[in-house]
Amino acid sequence: MRGSWLLVGLLSCSVPESGISGPVVANDGGRRDTGDCTPSDEECNNEDDDCDGNIDEFVVRSCGEMMGACGAGTETCTAGIFGECVDATGPTEEVCDGIDNDCDGSVDEVCSCEPGNTMACGSDVGACMMGTQTCNADGEWDPCIGATGPVDEVCDGIDNNCNGMTDEGVLRSFFPDDDDDDYGDPAGPRTEACTAPDGFVENNEDCNDDNSSINPEASEDCDEVDQDCDGMTDEGTLTTFYADMDGDGFGGAPVMACEQVDGTVTNDDDCNDECYTCNPDVDEEFCGDSNDNDCDGMIDEGSCRCDFVSGTGGTYVACDFNRNWSQARDICVRWNGALGFPETTAENNALYIGLRALEQQDYWLGGTDNDGASDEGTWESQEELVFTICDDNGRNCRCTTQCSWASGEPNDNGREDCMEMLSTAALWNDIECSESQAFVCEFPSP
Asked: How far are the Cα atoms of 263, 272, 288, 378 from residue 252, in angstroms, in the given order?
């Protein structure tokens, strides 16, 4: 019975002096998209298995026989299909010439022989070893004895399948790991070997091979760096803050950040982040501004007790419910404002005219000389602007900046330490802070 060994596999490459089996293959310099491609050894399947942008490149296999007079050829893969066997030498009819012409492992087996004669048989290519044939009493050659034949190729630096190539089709790809974090650089030079050389690993999943704290197993920090190599930055670590566009201490649109930045707050309670006088702390509606000031979902509901003062640029709000000076001040502060204080004569006159248009009455303003015993006689606004200084008895006063006191005021008559706008003229008067009356709040310019 005639037999043959069919030896197939990928072309192998020479073993460099470093002991690495196979060549160093230059990478194309691109970064692997872990979401689209996971590299593996290239196969004949019309796909880019090694994720280098090429399909079925350098995929060949041997064909034909490597026995006796026969010689193996090669088949090259194109678009997932192996082509014609090229350069193979096939078997021919056995003749008596001392050669295994029909490549069955026996030499001149069709020829008569002298009983007892012996001759070599088999193959000595790669790991294969020659055997011996003996001429029997009938003058015919017995089967080949003692030969070692081919086996499946394994990655060990030996031609196991005796086809003249070493480790074809079984080499593995390794990638440089310069930062020693067990993850390889996809942009680094790839090498083919049976086992990982020093400084190389089998994966190419690192996204920064210069930093061992950056790899797919790393924990993400909030620092605008992708530590875990998933293509995203700071995911799972950001804190939600809220933009405070109008500066009233209440937020609107969410802002994701590692740390709180200027212009943000930790609440999202604002109902209108473009309106400084619209937030949950404003418990009154300001009539005429078309805004929901108290954030209850309604505009100017009920009977409005506060109105924007016309002619003042939208910075003053007059409230006609009565409070003492300290209560009025605290209300304005809670609304992110202050008791009103006109700093120029023109502003003072405009405020008075606007107040007269609402209702003729006295209004608290934001001036006092009662911020402490040492301040007696020193009049200042809530913004600590000193505008009037008096002697120790609260009299004989002089203005240090624009002031609009009525004649003979301030006179500190009976501990009159707080300032009001008179209803009869654009003038100021000092009265006792415990009096209860309407008041004017001032807010930043819109």
From this structure: 11, 7, 23, 41
Helix (H) / strand (E) containing 176 = strand 172-176
Q: Evaluate whether 46 touches 216 at the Cβ level (below 8 Å).
A: no
In the predicted model, what is the mean pLDDT of residues 210-221?
A: 95
What residues pair up with 65 in beta bridges, in sequence order? 6
d(CA 438, CA 244): 30
Inter-residue contact 442 to 338 (CB < 8 Å): yes
Q: Which residues of 265-302 are buried (b: 16+ CB within 10 A; e: fewer)?
A: beebebbbbebbbbbeebebbbbebebbbbbeeeeeee
CA 244 from centroid of its chain's CA atoms = 25
The span from the CA of 308 to the CA of 314, in Å, is: 6
Least confident span in 206-215, 304-313, 335-344: 304-313
Is the Cβ–Cβ distance between 270 and 295 less than 8 Å? yes
pLDDT tens-digit map of 240-264:
999 999 888 999 999 999 999 999 9
What DSSP assignment string belongs to 112-128?
A: ---TT-EEEES--STT-
| Omega within 30 of 0 (cis) for the link into 39 | no
User: Is the pTM higher than 0.85?
Assistant: no
> What contacts 40, CB < 8 A, 6 or more positions away?
49, 50
Tens digits of residue pLDDT in 331-345: 999 998 999 999 999
- CA 73 and chain centroid, separation: 52
Contacts of 173 (CB under 8 A, 6+ apart): 25, 39, 41, 50, 190, 191, 192, 202
φ/ψ of 348, rounded to 5, equals -65, -45
Give the tokens for residue 306. Answer: 């506060």
Instruction: At 318, list the tokens.
Output: 């007059």
306 to each of 102, 287, 292, how far by Cα in Å?
113, 6, 13
Q: What SS3 state is found at 386?
A: strand
* Closest by CA position to 419, among listed 392, 437, 443, 393: 437
CA dihedral 287, 290, 295, 300 (to 10 degrees): 40
Cα 61 from Cα 113, distance rounded (Å):
39
